Amino acid sequence: MYSSEDLERFYFQYQTEALPHGESLQSFCAKNKVPYNIFQKWFKDTRKKVVEVQVDGAPEIAHEEKTKTGEQPKPVSRSSDENPVRIWIDIRISNGLHLSQKNLSYQDLVRMIEKLEGLC
């Protein structure tokens, strides 16, 4: 069985050796005796979860000041009141821990990070 690290190295090898010469991923897999379906599933599961984000504002109060005053940070600007931005995070830690949280507001995200800081 192939580990995620094996497939990561294989993908890097493909990008550096075969892709510049126009070789297809399927032929590279066949040449190196790596089942294409296994590689494709790994790639889909690990690469497609990263998405581009745009930040519209920043908190007015710095994290240290917030803990002193007990106030919640307020966004500087907001794109639309009827469609507030919701945050989805997916964290994978090297020890195998996987955290996933959907539908977070900015304040929920701040609270979650504060709780995670306590674990470190």
TrEMBL record:
UniProt superkingdom: Bacteria
Region (Disordered): 59-81
Bias kind Basic and acidic residues: ranges: 61-71
Protein name: Transposase
